Amino acid sequence: MLIEKSCKEFIDILASASPVPGGGGASALVGALGTALGSMVGNLTLGKKKYECYQDDIKRILEKAGILQTELSDLIAKDAEVFEPLSKAYGLPKNTEEELAIRNEIMEKALRDASSVPLEIMKKALEAIDLHEELAVKGTKIAVSDVGVGVLFCKSALMGASLNVFINTKLMKDREYALKINQETEKMLEAGIKKADEIYAQVEAAIKS
């Protein structure tokens, strides 16, 4: 399991010529790290009298963040799993019409599977950004900078994963399906980037004021 590697091992594998992990897995990891930073802020806020009115919210945020961290961590391995069939499909013979038809059918399924995981990474990153929006207000002010870093990581996960969606939909023969996925991706990008930038600006203003 890639997630069980040490930081150094993961970075070394990522830097190698190995096709996995790649941008999708790295995006999932960055998203998990960003969410973990949000959890840290929540844990630093938990039990503090100054933030007594937010304690129930902080507990809910921590529970949700823990789930997201696990889901994003699992998506690192899942991204590698779905890429393998796609990499094999590229090597299938296409010398005859029959071979080409078989190759196209296998490729189409592999491309759909390969785009489904980064799409899921984006959804989880969006949920994590929402948690940071709350933490920017309800979290302890001594760790507000970590909210800013965390939301930047989640934004990076969102944007990075989107590129893995687009590179797969570009090759799909079913253009109607590709367009549907692209529109869903663009919608998440627009909403997530806007919100993440607003949260970051709020954190930056709080630090500099």
Compact summary:
This protein is an all-alpha fold.
Chain-wise SSE layout:
Blueprint: H1 7-15, H2 23-45, H3 55-90, H4 97-138, H5 144-169, H6 175-208
Helix pairs in contact: 2-3, 2-4, 2-5, 3-4, 4-5, 4-6, 5-6
Description of the molecule:
This protein has one domain (22-79, 118-208): Four Helix Bundle (Hemerythrin (Met), subunit A). It has six helices and no strands. The protein is mostly helical.
What's the alpha carbon Rg, rounded to whole Å? 20 Å
Helical residue percent? over 70%
Q: What is the domain tally?
A: 1
Q: Which stretches are low in confidence, meaning pLDDT under 50 for 5 or more residues running?
A: none
Query: How many individual helices?
Result: 6
**How many strand segments?**
0
Q: Give the CA-CA distance, first to last residue.
A: 44 Å
- The SSE string, one letter per element, is HHHHHH
Reported for the largest beta sheet, the result is: none
Beta-strand content: under 5%
Do you know the CATH architecture? Up-down Bundle
Shape by Cα distribution: elongated
Mean pLDDT: 95
CATH third-tier fold name = Four Helix Bundle (Hemerythrin (Met), subunit A)
Structural class: mainly alpha
Per CATH, the superfamily is: Formiminotetrahydrofolate cyclodeaminase monomer, up-and-down helical bundle
Keywords:
single chain; 209 residues; mainly alpha; Four Helix Bundle (Hemerythrin (Met), subunit A); 6 helices; 81% helix; elongated
